[in-house]
Amino acid sequence: MAGDGSRHSGGRRPATALRPGHLTGLSGPGGSGGAARPTGYQATNAYTRIIVDEALRREISVEITDPGRGGLVLRYGGRAVRSYESLSELTSAVAFRICDDKRLTREVLERAGIPVPPGRTATGDERDLAFLAEHGELVVKPAQGEGGEGVTVGVTTAEELGVARELAQQCSTDVLLERFCAGDDLRVVVIGGEVVAASVRRPATVVGDGRSTIGELIEGRSRVRAQETGGASRIPLDETTRWVVEKAGRRLGDVLDDGAELRVRRTANLHTGGTIHDVTGQLHPALAHGAVAVAAAIDIPVVGVDLAIEALDRPEFVVIEANEQPGLANHEPQPTAERFIDLLFPETADGRR
After folding, report:
1. What is the pLDDT of residues 149-206, one digit of tens each?
2. What pTM does this model have?
3. CB of 273 within 8 A of CB of 204?
4. Any residues with CB less than 8 A from the CB of 270 and at least 6 apart, and which?
5. What CATH number belongs to 118-180?
6. Which CATH class is domain 1-115+182-203+266-353?
């Protein structure tokens, strides 16, 4: 339910699960047979490198203007295109703003007849409590934010609602309340009006060994995730994690039975220890059609559409949000970088589809 990548404004943290090969780069000085790697390559992250590597394979000139934020200028055939990771100049300022403000996203999609959860902008008064009473369980999130920061899932009491609003307001002045929708968290990447990749994202989970406390299991699992992702994914031992554990009737000091599983985060954001699982070939056609419809309604060429779904083989869904800068490195073996470069420089795409 959160975005990923790192915005050109500098505020977005990576929220992705990465393979070690992405973090070390490809073999050879030219990134798998292309031109020599440009200055600043080693200072970039995996989300930038996957784009650079694909461009170099096609002999597209690459200038890295901002290694920390993934700023690139790609040149081919006398034409130059700027991008920050997967956010290129082909995305309009209007489309960016629609994705950036979750209230605008909802309004645009509702007008297009695309299902979204019931929701409202928090007002901090009895109307919020009435909305909670009507729907029973809420998601509270900043109207503007990324990476799952400030998001609370599973709010069921007035006290929890107050705490969740305050947490969200640390990230954004305006706060959005939405009905909680049970089911899987599905990210669908749409590029050029076509579904390129889809992945189910699952929250951080620990498995008991009959000896270690839940806190120790979290720390151990966090170390493993950090090693697997080059430090991009960790499970924070913060108030949110404690709250999720306590909502499950546990304490961090409790010993979890051998083989018992416990979700320790409610959101599936990968920078907080979530995992991602490719399901591109398993999508029900209605889910793929819904994601493409979202891209068309926003009029955006590259987008990560987050859906809450009942099951991969069922057509029911609601749209949670749309991310204007999806992390392309998260979806191997799907050809996300290839399709992105196809979009920017279609003249180089011959024979690649």
Report:
1. 888 999 999 999 999 999 999 999 999 999 999 889 999 999 999 999 999 988 899 9
2. 0.84
3. yes
4. 4, 14, 15, 16, 17, 201, 229, 232, 233, 276, 330
5. 3.30.1490.20
6. alpha beta
